[in-house]
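During the no-cost extension, the postdoctoral fellow (Dr. R.K.) reprocessed legacy sequence entries with the updated structure-token encoder. One reprocessed record is reproduced below for audit purposes.
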Amino acid sequence: MYKGFKIVKIILISGVAIFVTANVLWELLSLTMTRNSSKLYSPDRRYYAQVEETNGGATTSFMTDIMVADAKSTIINFGFFYTGNDTNRKWVFGFDGALDSVKLQWVDTHTLKVKYQYCSELHGKPDKSWKDIKIVYEGQCSKDN
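Re-encoded structure tokens follow.
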């Protein structure tokens, strides 16, 4: 029985080491492939919006996502490992343009304006609201004409 426990212990320690190593390597890759905009806080500082751009390199185009989140929540993303409450943040919009081709603006406390250009297609259907925030879009991608 003691020998079996020792084998299980070695397997568990190896699994944790592989998991941690994979996350460190994933984060190093993300640092070179991903850019984030500064957080843009709503006028009442209750929410923020942020743009994240992933450069796929030679094999794929840019993927740019817009997220909104509760400003008071703690959201930590470590590659495969995510901590935070999914009800505290929301992906609202994605397209194949670069980070510089989208502008965010809080029109008022409950209205976020997303202005985008220089893209060929949207990824998914843009959300028009989240919690008590209305999201309005201005722009068009070439495949969406």
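The first strand starts at residue 34 and ends at 36. The chain has one domain: 35-75+84-144. The remaining legacy entries will be reprocessed before the final report is submitted.
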